[in-house]
Amino acid sequence: MNIKTSVGLAAAGLLATVFAGGPAAQAAAPEWKSERGIVLECQGEAHGLRVWTSVYENHRYGNVVQVVIGDPDDGNGSSKHTETKFLVDGDVLASVKVDGKRALVEGAAERHGARTKVYEQLDDAGFLIKTRGFHRPLLTDMGFRYAGTYVPLVCDTAFYYDLEVKKIPIV
After folding, report:
1. From the centroid of its chain, how far is CA 47?
2. CB count in 10 Å sphere of residue 135
3. Domain-by-domain residue ranges, the chain?
4. pLDDT in tens, 93-150
């Protein structure tokens, strides 16, 4: 094989690896990866306390709970990443410290209604991300406890997801 001198050394090395079928060629091929979990984004206000929460589970990448109390621009929030599941046997329990006090997101969630097919493509951080699979609504009854105050939560967009995701580098 004759490679022209105008091709840079890096490109020549890449071409040699591709033609030889080496490890870089195999590693470069993006694969579909399964992701399953829940998304509970909720908000509520009671007794002068306004709150926004996100309880997110992903069996591949872990779980995150986020809480913002009051105005999001005031910095009264916190998040925690964990391997612990938040939704177990229909019960939701997630907590994080906000200003040194325990903020507790609790309640119940269950799959309810028909599945919705999902197919999306978007560019993000140098990758074309393709997603296919389904979402299914979650019926919720949620609340929030903080510093002796209880706030009922509304989680209008809560859903369970079962997706395959492929991340393709944009060159």
Report:
1. 31
2. 16
3. 1-30, 32-169
4. 999 999 999 999 999 999 999 999 999 999 999 999 999 999 999 999 999 999 999 9
